[in-house]
UniProtKB/TrEMBL annotation:
Coiled coil region boundaries: none
UniProt-recorded name of the protein: Putative oxidoreductase
Record GO terms (molecular function): nucleotide binding; oxidoreductase activity
Limits of the Gfo/Idh/MocA-like oxidoreductase N-terminal domain: 4-117
Gene source species: Amycolatopsis sp. SANK 60206
Pfam families in the record: GFO_IDH_MocA (PF01408), GFO_IDH_MocA_C3 (PF22725)
Family listed: Belongs to the Gfo/Idh/MocA family.
Signal sequence residues: none
Domain of life: Bacteria
Keywords tagged on the record: Oxidoreductase
Residues of the GFO/IDH/MocA-like oxidoreductase domain: 133-226
Gene3D superfamilies: Dihydrodipicolinate Reductase, domain 2, NAD(P)-binding Rossmann-like Domain
Length: 320
């Protein structure tokens, strides 16, 4: 039974870990730490967490904690993941786990005997396997839009790992990895940044795999909420709308498959909670004695591409 400590008294930790853990008898949340001790105390009281550490280092040193779930601003993830791994803890980090390959290498060097997991809740959904089975894939078009950046949030500040690209890149890259593979992929990106601090608010990314599959992402802030994949196959076109829905609750998804003659088939997937499924995957991985090398390779691929394509100014174009 893993006993978790939380670095970050956050809403995402409540949705992704605390809530799903209430429905299990093999997971306990035993401690929390935040940048403000009194906020951590209030958070612990609200969520029934028995211990509050005075700071992040104190939580890492707590012998009651087996695994640490980290949800901070993106630029802080790597440091605390590495420090937790150096202390012999299993580490689960909200996406993105880090911002470049050098950070990733330092984390895995520290975690030779423990697990390091990037929390991407859409990973492993049954639709990904179903898409792989349809046929010869030619193109993937993805559109993601969030209504707005929260005022005052780290997402407004590039130096803290803010901006729309880092918010959505892990979802997109994991999906591409699952259905087409990322090894050897090359690409380019362009973005527009607005606001006082210059975080990117619109991003377009184009990747091509060695097998010739083209993948494009359009991500933006300030419009109607959207999360949609369109998969173009040799003999069919497949649309998946609202692929982030299972992160909002136990909700269904549908693949709409249109063949060359215009005939449509709907492949439905029953209601599921992405966060409950993610916690189940985490618990299974933590039950194995050695780190999952395939998972580490997959994470390394995503981190490398994300770093190469990440916005670094008010308007830019980059190639990977």
């Amino acid at each position: 039974m893993p006993d978790f400590g939380l670095i970050g008294a956050t809403g995402i930790a409540e949705r992704a870990l605390i809530g799903p853990a209430r429905d299990r008898d093999d997971v306990r949340i035993v401690a929390v730490a935040a940048s403000d001790f009194h906020r951590a105390e209030a958070y612990a009281a609200r969520n029934g967490i028995p211990h509050v550490a005075k700071d992040y280092a104190g939580l890492i040193a707590d012998p009651r904690v087996d695994a640490i779930y980290i949800s901070l601003h993106n630029s802080a993830h790597a440091e605390w993941a590495r420090r937790a791994a150096e202390a012999g803890k299993h580490v689960i980090v909200e996406k993105p786990i880090c911002l470049d390959t050098a950070e990733w290498n330092r984390i895995v060097e520290a975690a030779r005997e423990t697990h390091v997991i990037e929390a991407v809740p859409t990973e492993g959904h049954e639709w990904q396997r179903a898409v792989r089975e349809i046929g010869t894939l030619i193109r993937i078009e993805t559109r993601m839009c969030f209504t707005d950046l929260v005022p005052g949030s780290y997402r407004e500040r590039p130096e803290l790992g803010g901006g729309i690209f880092l918010d959505v890149a892990s979802y997109w890259l994991q999906a591409l990895q699952a259905v087409a593979g990322l090894a050897g992929a090359t690409g380019s990106s362009r973005a527009r940044a607005t606001g006082l601090y210059g975080a990117d608010c619109e991003t377009h990314v184009r990747l091509q795999t060695p097998t010739g599959v083209i993948a494009e992402l359009e991500a933006s802030v300030g419009g109607r909420h959207a999360s949609e994949h369109v998969f173009v196959f040799e003999h069919a076109r497949v649309r998946l709308r609202h692929f982030l829905r299972p992160t909002a609750g136990k909700l269904p998804l549908n693949l709409v498959i249109t063949d060359e003659s215009g005939g449509k088939v709907i492949r439905g997937f029953p209601p599921a909670s992405a966060y409950a499924d993610q916690l189940d995957r985490i618990v299974r991985r933590l039950s194995t004695p050695r780190p999952d090398r395939a998972d580490r390779t997959a994470t390394a691929e995503r981190v490398a591409l994300m770093a190469q394509l990440r916005p670094d100014g008010r308007s830019f174009e980059r190639k990977a």
